[in-house]
Each structure stands twice: as structure tokens, then as C-alpha cells.
């Protein structure tokens, strides 16, 4: 069969799928009359399909799920978990704090409302914030649910949430960040909150 053309095998699959044309079926039958290897391969394919079809009708015995559930190991005693909580109070407190902080931040996840950091020299065209050529903007710019085009210079960070950053000959002295997913936005908010918190101690 290794010397037989590949299209013969393709015709076998077409035949078994019921998608073969009359012309291909005639060519396949002529070939099978003279090639014993292909006859054997065709029988093997037919047997496999018959087995799969018969296996599809197998059903689980009655009460099978109930018997499996009974044989599963029992839950461990909750005392061990409570003991672990008592031995690691700082980790538990940090996890609870992170959970509440994440929930609070997620509740303020930006919706479809367009907003941006108000700065002089910025031009707004629909939902696109533009830093014109030759203009210098001092400080960070955050654009939510919109795009930013920088043709001039920004002396700070540029953050775009659910939008696009577009620039050609721009100069940005800080970091450029595009945030499209909830978890990226959450991480951005956590970093921003942490930076604000640290700034209180630097004063």
C-alpha cells in the first residue's frame, strides 16, 4: 500500500464518510479489486468506524456515580486548616487585604466612559487625545476608553486603558503602557495606589 497513490486513501475516507463522488467511488472500487493491501486497509478502517459507533452507545451501569462517590476519600479534618490559619496570621491578613482591595478596585473598573488627564496644550478629537507637534506636556497622561496620538513631547508616563497609543516622531520621557485586560488594569491600579502610599512617607 505504500506504493499506492495518496488519493486512494483519501477516497477511502470519503467513502466511509459518505461524501464520495460517483467518479471517485468507481476509481476506488477498481483499485480495490487489484490491490490486496488497500483491501485490508479498507477493512481495518471499516472495523474501526463500526467499533466507535458501537462504543458510542455504551452507558454506565445503574448507580455508577453513587458508587464512585462512596469510594472517594473522605475530606480531611478541618482542624488542620484552622491550625494553619492560626500559625500564619500575617499571610491570612495579607490575603484578606488583597482580596478586599481587588474587589474595591474591580468595582471601579473603567466602563465605556471616555476620560483623560486634563493638561494644557492637549487637543481632543472625539475619543482621541492629541499632543500636537511642537507642544510639550508636563506630567503623566492617562487616557481611558480612548486613543492618544503623540506628535509632540510628554515629560512623564503615558497610560492608555482600553485604547491605543499612536506616535511617529514623539518623545516620551517616562514609560508607555497600554492596558487592555482586567488583570493588567488591576495591577496598574495596585501599583499606582502603592506609589501614592509610599509618597506619603517621602514627604
From TrEMBL:
UniProt KW Phosphoprotein keyword: no
Keywords: Membrane, Transmembrane, Transmembrane helix
Record Gene3D superfamilies: Anti-sigma factor, zinc-finger domain
Domain of life: Bacteria
Transmembrane feature ranges: 90-109
Domain Putative zinc-finger: 8-39
Alphabetical list of Pfam families matching this protein: zf-HC2 (PF13490)
Family per similarity comment: Belongs to the zinc-associated anti-sigma factor (ZAS) superfamily. Anti-sigma-W factor family.
Full protein name: Anti-sigma-W factor RsiW
Organism classification: Bacteria, Bacillati, Bacillota, Bacilli, Bacillales
Amino acid at each position: 500500500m505504500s506504493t499506492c497513490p495518496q488519493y486512494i486513501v483519501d477516497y477511502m475516507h470519503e467513502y466511509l464518510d459518505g461524501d464520495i463522488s460517483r467518479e471517485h467511488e468507481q476509481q476506488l472500487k477498481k483499485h480495490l479489486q487489484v490491490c490486496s493491501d488497500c483491501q485490508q486497509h479498507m477493512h481495518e478502517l471499516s472495523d474501526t468506524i463500526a467499533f466507535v459507533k458501537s462504543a458510542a452507545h455504551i452507558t454506565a451501569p445503574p448507580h455508577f456515580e453513587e458508587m464512585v462517590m462512596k469510594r472517594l476519600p473522605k475530606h480531611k479534618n478541618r482542624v488542620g486548616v484552622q491550625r494553619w490559619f492560626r500559625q500564619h496570621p500575617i499571610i491570612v491578613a495579607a490575603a484578606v487585604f488583597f482580596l478586599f482591595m481587588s474587589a474595591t478596585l474591580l468595582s471601579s473598573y473603567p466602563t465605556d466612559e471616555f476620560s483623560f488627564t486634563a493638561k494644557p496644550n492637549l487637543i481632543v478629537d472625539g475619543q482621541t487625545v492629541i499632543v500636537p507637534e511642537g507642544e510639550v506636556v508636563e506630567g503623566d497622561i492617562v487616557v481611558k476608553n480612548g486613543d492618544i496620538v503623540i506628535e509632540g513631547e510628554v515629560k512623564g508616563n503615558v497610560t492608555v486603558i482600553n485604547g491605543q497609543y499612536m506616535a511617529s516622531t514623539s518623545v516620551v520621557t517616562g514609560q508607555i503602557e497600554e492596558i487592555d485586560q482586567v488583570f493588567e488594569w488591576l495591577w496598574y491600579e495596585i501599583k499606582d495606589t502603592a506609589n501614592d502610599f509610599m509618597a506619603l512617607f517621602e514627604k
